[in-house]
Amino acid sequence: MTFHSRIDTLLSIYEGRGREALLPILWEVQGAYGHISPEHVRQISHLLRVPEADIFGVIGFYTLFHGEPTGRRIIRVCTDPICALAGADDVLHRLCEALGVHEGETTADGDYTVEHSPCLGLCDYAPAALVSARGEADVALPHVSADSLLSDWDGQYFTPAGNDRSVLLKPMLRAAPETLAQYGNYAALRRAVTEMSPDDVITQVEASGLIGRGGAAFPTGLKWKFTRGAAGEIKYVVCNADESEPGTFKDRVLMEHRPHLLLEGIALAAYAIGTDKAYIFIRGEYPKATAILADAIREAETACALGERVFDSDFSLDIELRRGAGAYICGEETALFEAIEGKRGFPRMKPPYPTTFGLFGKPTAVNNVETLCAVPGIIAKGADYFKAIGSNGSAGPKLVSVSGHVRRPGVYEIEPGITLRHFLEAICGGLIGDLQTVLMGGAAGTFIKPEDIDVKLTFEDLREAGSTFGSGAIMVFNHSVDLRDVLKRLGRFFQHESCGKCFPCQLGTQRQVEILERLDAPRAGDSERLLDIGLTMTEASICGLGHTAGIAVMSAIEQFPELFEKEL
Amino acid sequence: MSEDDITLTLTLDGDQIEVAKGATLLDAAHLAGVDIPVICYHEATSPNGLCRICVVDVDGGRVLQPACVAECQADSKVETRNERVERSRRTILEMLNASVNLDEAPEIQAMMTDYDADDARFPDANLREHTVIDDNPFYVRDYEQCVLCWRCVQVCAEDAQFTFALTLKNRGHDTSVATAFDISMTESPCVFCGQCVGVCPTGALKPKLEWGLEQGWSAAELRQNTRRGRKRSPEDDDGE
Ligand SMILES: Cc1cc2nc3c(=O)[nH]c(=O)nc-3n(C[C@H](O)[C@H](O)[C@H](O)COP(=O)(O)O)c2cc1C
Ligand code: SF4
Ligand code: SF4
Ligand code: FES
Fold first, then answer.
1. Given CB 3.0 to 4.6 Å as the disulfide criterion, which of A267, A390, B56, B104 pairs with A416?
2. Among the CATH numbers 3.40.190.10, 3.40.50.360, 3.30.390.50, 3.30.70.20, which is that of B139-238?
3. Per-domain residue ranges for chain A?
4. Residue B233 has pLDDT above 60, yes or no
5. Cβ within 8 Å, pair A54-B164
6. Is there an atom of ligand 2 within 6 Å of A63 CB?
7. CATH code linked to domain A398-478
């Protein structure tokens, strides 16, 4: 086939679509050709009526898209803190040596491109990699070595999760996701659409005390009420499955193990706010969860649990899966909308808030995967069942992702109120070595010292202790860990992921990493510089990324001032 | 009473003032005769509130508010220049100065003096390096002087010209203004309306003539290399 007929065939299914189809199309071209050339851009521009310069700008924003030719196989090794502890730098180094390239380069024969990657959400399988072979689906690889990356790729892994008492997680004995038959045919949704009004659903969710699990801790029922009450016929539900905070992989486990639980939660949200269209925006680094969800959507549609006239009611729902393309910032709700709309993932100014002006400018309820997964249980068993779990301010079960120096890293469902100590010592199988510190809440979290781990794991207790659940990430470091190295990697992460829109964060993440890179021989005044940068980012940035990009560093300055002084 | 007539009161630096509903904090400051610095804000472009030099303290909130876009809230207490505000403004300027060549941005330099910003606060910083792009007879682009205010991209697009020759490339600190695949301006859809040059707050976009004079070009070189060379004679031109 000639170039033109090949690309024409590829693009023909997008005929008549607009800019919102840009990311899906770029994925098609990236997958088939390994990069998106000026000629491709010309054709896409013509098809979607989007300026070529804009398409070029979009390609450059998302790290999984390439504007330059790449190797037939692209290997991306995660080098964020947890994979680094497991020897990721060494893997990358050996790989580059074996292939005779530097990181970021392509081998002369065009076979391989090697890159490093931010956290891939496989921290319980560190070191991890994401690999792409031209024309094939991407694969996330667990426990990689230079040798395994150069032989046949084996993407088999599954994270054991759940026990008899857990509700969100079921004890998983096999790697296969739960089927519709195993899950049960969406009893909560059936009940809602046949017996309950949308307002009843919202009332139940409000009464349950469910608060969002995506980091901002906003009451879910209230968000739905606002969205339902907002003016306008067209509304949307968006499931935020962008999970890219280093050390966080709870949403991945939910999607890989219990896809139908999530789909039912989304359907209940859609019914409640009054829409027949929902999107799942899933990070590009989660190919396995993406495939599982796509299958589950088809399965549920066949069973009349999704699609036209759900369970013969007047409620219909189309759920569309959208893949991100390598940008942590697209987890920020308004940047996520921009990505679905086919633009660079720049956060918008708020107000207006998504509940009135969200996706395509329409009222939108955007919720985290775990938040939505909590809803079917609330509707099936009632708000009181949910409230009875946990504490007053932290109703319901909570998932956390634990990684680093514990015997059994993974995803756990906890009842808020247990202490961090109990969690680490009894639930995660105990610590490996002597605890140095816990990084609580992700890259934007705070450090907790061993003497403070009796803190209770609830939203309110953590807040009082100056910490946060954040994304639910708990990274555990024993005394073998060089915290300066951890900080340096966190600094690199934020520098890499800042969208660049606002000056405080665009410049602050850069200045911050410059100083963190020289922590082994700091200059006089570096802690003051870091504090000025951190406070300025926190107080003056546009979005949550900038607001939190200096938090871990400022927490380290407080807890470990010695790290910032010259070694004698 | 129509919507527009509704007013609200707030306290700005200790003084009670009355403003129309929907007024920004910057509007309120103008009214009160208080000076708030701005970099990205420009009357001709839609505001993006991105430079954040205009931040002010509203009711001691957790985060500061960008005065150019944030609307006045009734009965709020606004401080336009307290310690928090000064730290943010000073640090933004110091960080900017470490990334961008501000030699030809006198307004920003004046702000540096006003806010006591240290010219060498961030040693060993990564200056954004770019070479001057001289690819058309009308203007040159020196992105080493670009502060990424987005104004040029905006006037080239929906704010004025609908030409879409310019975009932003890469992300974060590596961002720069660019054409698609870095093609020259003459290959791009650019119609040389010059609006981008008009709104650029620094020396990043400069008329070719001005640049040629700085380079010490002879009259003949100037004629040959600038748009004047395309007109009948230099004298016929409307000047810069
Ligand atoms: C930089 C950044 C990244 C974020 N990433 C995610 C994410 O991956 N998943 C998520 O659910 N929320 C993320 N959030 C929070 C979302 O903006 C939003 O608050 C959340 O999706 C709302 O869902 P919830 O109410 O169910 O918590 C992020 C926020 C910021 C500022
Ligand atoms: S805070 Fe950072 S990520 Fe957020 S808008 Fe500003 S530059 Fe972009
Ligand atoms: S070139 Fe000028 S107008 Fe354009 S973004 Fe840079 S500083 Fe602003
Ligand atoms: S002038 Fe207000 S953010 Fe730039």
1. A390
2. 3.30.70.20
3. 3-61, 73-149, 180-387, 398-478, 483-564
4. no
5. yes
6. no
7. 3.10.20.600
Asked if B164 lies within 8 A of A538 by C-beta distance, the reply is no
pLDDT tens figures, A274-303: 999 999 999 999 999 999 999 999 999 999
How are strands ordered across the β-sheet holding A277-282?
A318-323, A277-282, A236-241, A364-368
Ligand nearest to the CA of A331: 1
Q: Which residues in chain B have Cβ-Cβ distances shorter than 8 Å to A56?
A: 167, 169, 178-181
Mean pLDDT of chain B: 93
Does residue B204 line the site of ligand 3, with CB under 6 A? yes
**pLDDT for the residue numbered A3:** 67
Query: Which residues have any ligand 1 atom within 6 Å of their CB?
Result: A 212-216, 218, 240, 242-244, 328-329, 331-333, 366-368, 371, 543-545
In angstroms, the Cα distances linking A318 to A31, A196, B68 are: 26, 21, 40
Chain A CB within 8 Å of residue B129 CB: no
What average pLDDT does chain A have?
Answer: 96
**What number does CATH give the domain A483-564?**
1.20.1440.230
Region A308-337: mean pLDDT is 98
Distance B150 CA to ligand 4 centre (A): 11
Which class in CATH covers the domain with range B3-82?
Answer: alpha beta
List phi, psi (to 5°) of A275: -150, 160
Q: Which residues contact A443 (CB under 8 A, 6 or more apart)?
A: A80, A119, A245, A246, A247, A473, A490, A493, A494, A552
Global ipTM: 0.95
pLDDT value of residue A155: 87
Q: Which CATH superfamily is domain A180-387 in?
A: NADH-ubiquinone oxidoreductase 51kDa subunit (3.40.50.11540)
Q: What are the Cα distances from residue A168, in Å, to A173, A282, A498?
A: 15, 19, 33
